[in-house]
Amino acid sequence: NAGVTQTPKFQVLKTGQSMTLQCAQDMNHEYMSWYRQDPGMGLRLIHYSVGAGITDQGEVPNGYNVSRSTTEDFPLRLLSAAPSQTSVYFCASRYNRGQETQYFGPGTRLLVL
Amino acid sequence: AQSVTQPDIHITVSEGASLELRCNYSYGATPYLFWYVQSPGQGLQLLLKYFSGDTLVQGIKGFEAEFKRSQSSFNLRKPSVHWSDAAEYFCAVEKGNKLTFGGGTRVLVKP
User: Fold this and answer.
1) Mean pLDDT, 10 residues at a time, over chain B (111 residues)?
2) Distances (CA, A) of A27 to A1, A31, A92, B76, B77
3) Distance from B44 to chain A by nearest Cα, in Å?
4) How far is CA B109 from CA A39, A40, B20, B47, B61, in A?
5) What residues of A are in the B interface, CB distance below 8 Å?
């Protein structure tokens, strides 16, 4: 049971490039989410999904796209990277029922030049 | 808008001393409450959680937290700090499928 996995661990992009951050979980969790962590601001919710085919926006969705075609995977896409998207990105998942805890992946560190 | 405040950005404590980290939130009703810990370069580990019931919650690593509805607070405590407790601590609140984090408190432990 690998839990929540994220790839890559570290990525450098140039402004305007696109990329996809991968997130997968093997716990059959319905709910998955993406956060970005910036110094002094804690983690902020980007997008989340309560099941395959269903996604919704969080607090800071601009510049990011998501889709959920399977229960296991929840990729985060940056279509045109900007320096403001330099951050550490965390994926998390949980069961979609009351009183459940989210489990976090190890994070992806992204640097946009 | 909902918000979570951790008033202390940094706290320095001596090893063996007690620790209290503050957390206040603003919501219309009692949300689900969490404390997470993050060691440098690592992901987040859940320390404890409150959903309902007993307002004093026990967690891992000897931590506990108390929910006070009248003060909209969920403060984290540990009676005796170990050097391995040096980390950043995040309070988080969940309402309506959205988890909102405070800005974090970095704890330094002096020998």
Assistant:
1) 91 97 88 93 92 94 95 96 96 91 96 91
2) 7, 11, 11, 29, 31
3) 6
4) 20, 20, 13, 18, 15
5) 31, 33, 35, 40-45, 48, 50, 56, 58-59, 90, 92, 98-99, 101-102, 104-107
Half-sphere exposure of B51 (CA within 13 A, CB side): 5
**How far is A88 from A111, CA to CA, in rounded Å?**
9
List the structure tokens of B20: 């209290």
3-state secondary structure B44-101: EEEEEEECCCCCEEECHHHCEEEEEHHHCEEEEEECCCCHHHCEEEEEEEEECCEEEE
Q: What is the pLDDT of residues A46-98, one digit of tens each?
A: 999 999 999 999 999 999 999 999 999 999 999 999 999 999 999 999 998 87
